[in-house]
Design a protein that fits this description.
The complex is a heterodimer of chains A (432) and B (372). By secondary structure, chain A is an alpha/beta fold. In chain A, strands 2-1-3-4-6-5-7 form a seven-stranded mixed β-sheet, sandwiched between helices. In chain A, strands 9-10-8-11-12-13 form a six-stranded mixed β-sheet. In chain A, helix 1 crosses helix 6, helix 12 runs antiparallel to helix 13 and helix 12 packs across helix 14. Chain A contains 14 helices and 13 strands. The termini of chain A are far apart. Chain B has 372 residues and is of the alpha/beta class. Chain B has two domains: 262 residues, Thiamin diphosphate (ThDP)-binding fold, Pyr/PP domains (Rossmann fold); 104 residues, 3-Layer(aba) Sandwich (Rossmann fold). Chain B has twelve helices and 15 strands. In chain B, the strands form three sheets. In chain B, strands 3-2-4-5-7-6-13 form a seven-stranded mixed β-sheet, with helices on both faces. A five-stranded mixed β-sheet of chain B has the order 10-12-11-14-15, sandwiched between helices. Chain B has a two-stranded antiparallel ribbon with strand order 1-8. The longest helix of chain B has 18 residues. The termini of chain B are far apart. The chains are: A alpha/beta (432), B alpha/beta (372). Strand 2 of chain A pairs parallel with strand 9 of chain B. Bound molecules: iron/sulfur cluster (SF4). The site of iron/sulfur cluster (SF4) has 12 residues of chain A, from loops. Iron/sulfur cluster binds next to loops of chain A.
């Protein structure tokens, strides 16, 4: 066996008779059996008496926040796959860190979780935890009588843990159990029952014998969970990540001269489902193909398929500061809801503002020049309305032209959709 | 290269990659989700790790574990997520774990409005840790800043071993701009420093000449300790008041004394009466307002603060000195103005704040300047 990793300068400081003492010894023995040197191990400890574990060993150690030990452990293991990562938590940590326990079980990253389960919060004075039996007398008054305790093993099993075992701190061969759990390639959980003389057994009879008897009545949890066997997460991750290809956003070279100089503000008002945001982006890409600077600020509801959708686009040959529009040069108005969101803006529109609106969208009275688009007659579906309006804008040729629009569509769309939007532009331009 | 058309969040991800980020974890939240999306596109393909946490507390926890194992780590969220990060932020600040935290701010309080911007977290970022230890907060104005300041944020996290925040905003993070990142001058990349002699390594050992402890990773040859408890140089709990006091003061001073080394700002100095001080997306409207004022023949000065915390006090004193009048404009009900007033305690500092989901417009800023 390898040398002990126990820190001679920092012997355990548990209350006399605390079962954590036995687990400390068994964990050291397990490390020795596995022949692990201290620099191949990281102990991640939680808060509470189980949170002292990292100090007793000459290993890598991280002692963090209550309930979160599994999160640090996962970060360490993903960063350092060769390291054996052992997590010590109490039954308290299972409650507060429940979401992390479920995630660890589902994920199956190669971590070993030792739950030091003594049925109460020792360090804070014996309050009830998620494993306290209802009949126990603890310092939480009557509260534990009203709740049902968790069987951590059953929870872990149903959450997908690949290795789950219930142990007693007092059973012979505990070190072997721990060594086996550490050696398991995947997430392994040992629910180790023990006695807290400092708090719990002051009012509750609990002996090694009672623990053994109680454990015998529990549903089995004997290690490997057949139905949950699968590949370890870290190796799966590295394989999947290795198949990813790196993609950077495309650079847009200038290939045209802009139809006009200066700053142009274009406001697109519509509904979700009309591809307002896509059209705004196409407009920007079109401008960039003529060397213009572009900004696009969008506004939409958190629902994806309903509600107004607004895009504010600025194209300019000067740097662009403020990104919202006060006096647009072009307003594309395609739905009532979109127009209502910017109702107040219409009163300020100038006579030179061009408003491209769908025939069925009413706009407030304003000074701008209005061109109504009969999308029904043009055979334009709702999803194509915004892009169809861009086709009209390009034909008009003041801010973008059709060459710019076509390049932008090629940048934004591909294959079947590209073919259909290019056809849309031709159709709309020939009929409008 | 020619410009790209990208949003601030995407530029944050690209800046992180440029800085050598090796680990990202985040939980979906508008308007920060697209950073997670972009990292997922960039990081695994570059042999890094990007995961979606089961919640925000977990996401930052994964990052802290990975950072202690030697990977440059970043997470991103919005105000509600920062609240959940809070205890982990305290851990990172107190135990000197390098991490970059992006807060793409949205309109609060609480759930607020997911798709509306605000700068409502500015004091929260500074004071949102138990113990009140300083942190670094950088505030981008545009997509270019998102890229550059993210690189600086990583450098600062590495150099000073602390959490560094990027105080972005929905109106920067999710607004797209044409920008040529390849044309920008990028700072030299800084990595955390290993000790010269690792045999006698103590995880929190400092000296007269060494204010920031050397770093060795968990998982390296030498066993390394990390703890969220009050600790001495060896990484074990200490109760020695002198040791504790020295460590607390060091955590404070290592950042506050160094702020002039990383005071980022933009300015438009003018021979004018009025100086407008602002930061973040509001700087864009203030810039337009300054242009309009100059065109109208009554110029104003403009100071855009990009290092918000620690407060660059010297910068603010120096830059305000030539002006008779100081006006602070921010996208909240008055947060950073308290710092300006504290520094300029002998002067009157005017304030305009707005928090209604809309950007403050150049016209509004001009009205404020005109005293209307
Ligand atoms: S309080 Fe309980 S768990 Fe904690 S050391 Fe004492 S006996 Fe052990």
């Amino acid at each position: 066996m390898a040398d002990s990793l126990l820190n001679k300068d920092r012997p355990p400081v548990f209350c006399p008779g605390c079962s954590h003492d036995r687990i400390t010894g068994a964990l050291d023995k397990a490390f020795r059996k596995l022949g692990l040197p201290g620099n191949r191990i990281a102990i991640v400890s939680d808060i509470g008496c189980s949170g002292l574990f990292d100090t007793f060993f000459h290993t890598h150690a991280l002692h963090g926040l209550h309930g979160r030990a599994l999160t640090y452990a996962a970060g360490i293991k993903l960063a350092r796959p060769q390291l054996q990562v052992v997590v010590t938590m109490g039954d308290g940590g299972q409650g507060i860190g429940g979401a992390h326990l479920l995630a660890a079980c589902r994920r199956n990253l190669n971590l070993t979780l030792l739950v030091l389960n003594n049925f109460n919060f020792g360090m804070t004075g014996g309050q009830f935890s998620v494993t306290t039996p209802p009949e126990a007398r603890v310092s939480s008054g009557f509260l534990n009588r009203l709740e049902r305790p968790l069987d951590i093993c059953r929870v872990a099993h149903s959450a997908g843990a690949a290795y789950v075992k219930r142990c007693s701190s007092y059973q012979s061969g505990l070190a072997d159990e721990i060594a086996e759990a550490i050696a398991f390639d995947g997430f392994a959980l040992l629910d180790i029952w023990g006695i807290c003389p400092g708090r719990y057994i002051r009012q509750n009879p609990l002996t090694p014998k009672i623990i053994a008897e109680k454990m015998a009545t529990m549903p089995p949890a004997d290690g490997i969970v057949e139905e949950n066997q699968r590949r370890e997460y870290g190796s799966l991750y590295r394989q999947a990540a290795g198949e990813q290809t790196f993609s950077q956003p495309e650079s847009i070279a200038q290939r045209f001269q802009p139809p006009s100089n200066g700053r142009h503000e274009i406001l697109l008002l519509g509904d979700a489902g009309q591809r307002i945001i896509s059209a705004g982006e196409v407009l920007c890409l079109a401008g960039m193909s003529a060397g213009l600077q572009a900004t696009q600020k969008n506004e939409y509801n958190i629902t994806v398929l309903r509600g107004p959708s607004i895009s504010e686009v600025i194209l300019s040959n000067e740097p662009i500061g403020f990104t919202s529009l006060a006096r647009p040069d072009i307003v594309i108005a395609l739905s009532r809801e979109g127009v209502e969101r910017r109702q107040s803006l219409f009163a300020d529109l100038q006579p030179q503002t061009l408003i491209l609106k769908s025939l069925d969208t009413n706009i407030p009275p304003c000074a701008g020049a209005t061109q109504a688009l009969d999308f029904k007659k043009l055979g334009v579906k709702p999803a194509d309305r915004a892009l169809a309006a861009l086709a009209v804008l390009a034909k008009n040729g003041t801010i973008i032209d059709t060459d710019m629009l076509r390049v932008a569509l090629r940048l934004r769309f591909s294959e079947k959709i590209l073919a259909s939007v290019l056809e849309l532009v031709d159709r709309v331009q020939s009929r409008s | 290269m020619a410009p790209q058309f990208i949003e601030g969040n995407e530029a944050v991800a690209m800046g992180a990659m440029r800085a050598g980020c090796g680990f990202f974890a985040g939980y979906p939240i508008t308007p920060a989700t697209t950073i997670l999306n972009a990292m997922l596109r960039l990081l695994p393909a570059a042999s890094g790790v990007c995961i979606q946490g089961e919640d925000e507390i977990a996401s930052i926890g994964y990052c802290l574990g990975a950072s202690m194992s030697g990977l440059k780590s970043m997470t991103a969220t919005s105000g509600p997520g920062i609240s959940l990060y809070s205890e982990q932020i305290s851990f990172a600040a107190g135990s000197e774990i390098p991490i970059v935290i992006v807060d793409v701010q949205r309109l609060g309080p609480s759930t607020g409005s997911a798709t509306r911007g605000a700068d409502g977290d500015i004091q929260f970022l500074r004071w949102g840790n138990s113990g009140g230890i300083p942190v670094i907060v950088l505030a981008p104005v545009d997509v270019k800043d998102c890229y550059l300041l993210t690189i600086h944020a990583f450098n600062l996290a590495e150099e000073y071993r602390c959490p560094v925040f990027l105080a972005s905003n929905k109106e920067i993070g999710m607004t797209k701009e044409s920008v040529d990142l390849s044309a920008l001058m990028v700072p030299e990349i800084i990595d955390r420093r290993p000790p010269i002699d690792s045999a006698s390594f103590q995880p929190f050992q400092v000296s007269e000449n060494l204010r920031i402890p050397y770093f060795l990773p968990i998982g390296g040859d030498v066993p390394v300790r990390q703890t969220s408890s009050t600790h001495g140089p060896d990484g074990y709990i200490t109760t020695d008041p002198d040791q504790i006091s020295a460590s607390q003061w060091r955590l404070k001073k290592k950042l506050e004394d160094a702020v002039e080394r990383f005071t980022f700002y933009d300015e438009r100095a003018e021979d004018a009466e009025t100086l407008v001080i602002t930061y973040g997306v509001t700087a864009r409207a203030a810039g337009d307002a300054a242009n309009l004022c100059r065109q109208a023949g009554r110029p104003i000065g403009l100071l855009v603060v990009k290092t918000l915390w620690p407060v660059p006090e010297k910068l603010i004193r120096d830059k305000t000195a030539p002006y008779r009048r100081v006006v602070v404009v921010e996208m909240n009900l008055g947060q950073y103005v308290h710092e300006i007033r504290r520094i300029l305690s002998d002067r009157q500092v005017e304030f305009y704040g707005q928090m209604d989901g809309r950007l403050i417009t150049p016209a509004t800023i001009m009205e404020v300047i005109d005293g209307r």
